[in-house]
Write a structure and sequence with these properties.
alpha/beta, about 30% strand
Length: about 160
């Protein structure tokens, strides 16, 4: 790591500093070698902002359109558990932990976790998450909603 900085300083600025001199220089520049926060390669800040804006509006609209219908809002998501890949490290200013794309492939088990507005939920531990598992997931939601309400399920757009 410091060798890369040393080589860069020499090639770009003709500065022949020792390795032990590189670290104080980086410290004076307020730069550290840090692991970045994982970021999925297809992550979209725009989509996240749009979701945060539209979903509350849509829920209010549904409640206004059907005021006599008791509603439960459920959130669906899935997670992978298993040994993750190695952490990616980058040079960054102190106090900042940048988002970095890192390899996310690993053997895993999938969990469909649904948490309800009424503080209840369930999880399915599956060998894989695919279209064949979704009916099982939806059946469990149907079994867990109260007698009268209509369930509103907020689902992500994962494939």
């Amino acid at each position: 790591m410091a060798e890369d900085i040393q080589n860069l300083l020499f090639s770009k600025f003709d500065c022949n500093d020792s390795i032990s001199g590189v670290y104080p220089l980086l410290d004076r520049l307020n730069i550290v070698w840090i692991s970045g926060r994982p970021k999925h390669p297809k992550h979209s800040e725009e989509a996240t902002a749009k979701f945060k804006e539209l979903v509350p509006e849509e829920l209010k609209k549904i409640q206004q359109d059907y005021p006599k219908v008791k509603q439960e809002v459920w959130r669906q998501d899935e997670s992978r558990i298993g040994p993750p890949g190695s952490l990616s490290r980058v040079w960054a200013s102190k106090g900042i932990r940048p988002l970095v794309v890192r390899q996310k492939q690993f053997l895993s088990a999938y969990i469909y976790a649904v948490c309800a507005q009424k503080d209840t939920g369930y999880a399915l531990v599956l060998a894989e998450a695919n279209a064949d598992m979704m009916p099982i997931h939806l059946d469990l939601i149907a079994e867990n909603i109260d007698e009268d309400p209509t369930a509103i399920i907020l689902m992500d757009h994962a494939s």
